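Lab notebook, bench 4. The sequencing result for the construct came back, and we need a structural model before the next group meeting so we can plan mutations. Quick request posted to the team channel:

Model the 3D structure of this chain.
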Amino acid sequence: MSIDRETASLPGDSIRIGVVQLAMKPTSGLDSFLSELRFFIRTVAGYQADFVVFPEYVDAALMAPHDHLGTRAAIRELSRLTPAMLDFFRQQAVEQRINIITGSLPVLEDGVLTNAVWLCRRDGSSERQEKLHITPSEESEWHMSGGSALRSFDTDCGRIGMLICYDVEFPELGRLLADQGMDLLFVPFCTDTPSGYQRVRLCAQARAIENECYVIIGGSTGLLPGVTNMEMQHAKSAVFSPSDHGFPPNGIVAEVESSTETILIAEVKPRLLRELREKGSVRNLRQRRQDLVQVKWKESALP
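Done. Here's the predicted structure in token form:
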């Protein structure tokens, strides 16, 4: 599906986004963990935000009771909780009148384990995007597989895309979403080292410039003893923009301190994207040499 970027409808003047930089820490169980998430959702909703964003592997702490089974079995046990997690997020989206980017959750279907993020809209509907590129660690430790579909999603705040962590490091995906009319790109991530974080951050900033969109990255921080392959987290969640007139010169709308559990509240202005496309000092999408280079999704891979 291709959308005319010049005529695509954009929402009003301002969209408010809340990013939860979640501390990975031991928890006493599902009920306690959901109580913590409920606090964050209600807090962000209290600021009249349109979206709240959670990190990749948002419920990783709940693997702790199963760690003795080995990493592969532990995350499959975690996947059993995914339906309950989704029920919770869908209910909260409606009750708090906020669109929720759930952070990623493991999904086990027909014996295949994938990593997926959901958009839970405040009207009660929901849709998911699977992680397409699986890291070497996810493959070796968890025997996880990558998804095979990519699409953008309509919301009451315009069209969005969702890429999980490593996927933002592959520029083809952002470009394909831009061709579908995406204006906001949400990237839940989980990185354990500063170098891993910088890969996500720098690539996210590049996606914002080359695709003339806002990119929102939300990660986790802290230490998680008792969960193999998730012991240490490093993040500095942020909202990035193109770098041109009307936007911050450094392309950073807002960011939080690293390694601190906190909430980032930021506003983005879709009107500025429209102005950029029409009269920006550079126009990355319009001036592409598609007579020379094109990025296309293989027809054989379409769902």
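Residues 15-281 form a domain with the Nitrilase/N-carbamoyl-D-aminoacid amidohydrolase fold (CATH 3.60.110.10).
Will bring this to the meeting.
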